Amino acid sequence: MSKAYPNPASPSGSRPGALSGKQRKFLSKLTVLISGGMFIDGFILGCIGIVMPAIAADLHLSLAWQGLIGASALVGIFIGGPLGGWLADKVGRKPMFTIDLAIFLVGSVAQFFVTEAWQLLVVRILMGIAIGADYSIGWPLLAEFAPARLRGKLLAVLELAWYVGYLISYALGWALTESNAAGWHVILGLSTVPTVIVFLMRLGTPESPRWLMSKGRRDEAKALAAEHMAHDEQLDLHAQGAAGKQGFGRLFSRDYLKTTIFVSVFWVCNVTPYFAIGAFAPVVLQKLGLQEGLTGGLVLNGVAVVGTIISVMLIERVGRRKLAVPPFFISALALMSVALFAHASPTIILVCFFTFSLVNAISTTLTGVYPGEVFPTEIRGVGVGFATAFSRIGAAAGTFLLPVVIGSFGVGTAMLIAAGISLFGGIVSYALAPETRGKLLSEASAPQRQSNSLASSGELKSAR
Predict the structure, then answer these.
(1) DSSP secondary structure string, 298-319?
(2) Are 281 and 293 within 8 A, CB to CB?
(3) Where is the Major facilitator superfamily (MFS) profile domain (predicted)?
(4) In which element (H, E) is residue 209 found?
(5) Domain extent at residue 244
(6) Is residue 200 a part of any domain in this protein?
(7) What's the pLDDT tens digit per position in 204-246?
(8) CB 283 within 8 A of CB 293
(9) Helix or strand or coil: residue 320?
């Protein structure tokens, strides 16, 4: 089964997959614009654990209300991911790319003015919906423009932007809380600043040629591809052929069921322990006997940024599987050690938490890579959206339940549960994680049985 698209020679003087100066500039700008959305997502989540004591005192919140507000943005992402993905597949990446951020901007400004718990809950759910949509719009858009040799690294940069946003928000919240320089309204509302900047920069972003091709708008697709895409990716447009069935149902078809299961489980098992521990790091560390909980939480998030940078640097060298699978088992061991030896030594606690933060970030970076690669164009939005929603079930549950579990059963039990989640993620990922390094997008997103057949016959290599 050979590919039915032409194979003209590469432009004179360029290697396959090479980008012109104009194309490199466009791809860099697009990466920055999509990274901006990820930065904002991390930013709104990073400081919520720090300001929660002030919010609880000001609004007289019970533990349940604290959990609800802490998880509210995650609940919104659960709704916005599938909805935004469906709309991105239906009406296009371009219009949704700015609409979702405009909605987020409204919610961000509203945080300055909330006076009751239910208002804050509604506002942060709205912001979460917008951010969830941005996942399922931005990731497919970048994956559909990026050349195969850079796609993993660029998608991984998006996750780095999330961690940087989380760290900066955490650090600002920590500094403003320690100095009593600003109230929680201001700390939460600071997300307005990066949102305005990114929103203005996104105006005028072009539509995805792969999406246009999937809708039969071939001339528009070819024109945009010639302007913005590398030679190999222009050829790969023709490998899409006729668009397949759209909608969520195809995610559970014979062709993509294992892919959907893998991406969803991989994501939820990475982020559930992180959100549970990261959002309440000061509380967890103080319960374990470390009085400088805020400072420890800041360092933990800094270590996570280092882990993400490692993943960005290595992803196109060692491949996806080597970065995705082993960190799960190391995380499980680290968290189990915290549970069993929590009272032995503060040093052991810190080493284990730092280890978890580092390796969890290395693996979690792949949650920004796999979803954009393994689904075809016509369901890439809903595929990313569904995985986003599924992951936020675990993230929201972890954020909501951690204070309750700690209060009722202690930190040790909470850490054992987190270790079990990491272990399960490692087992599933070992069995199902594909290797997509160096593959054209049509190859990486091919139905599993077709991909296996092509790989075994050697036709993928000859088709190039």
Answers:
(1) HHHHHHHHHHHHHHHHHHHHH-
(2) yes
(3) 30-437
(4) helix 209-214
(5) 21-463
(6) yes
(7) 899 999 999 988 899 999 999 999 988 888 888 876 655 566 7
(8) yes
(9) coil
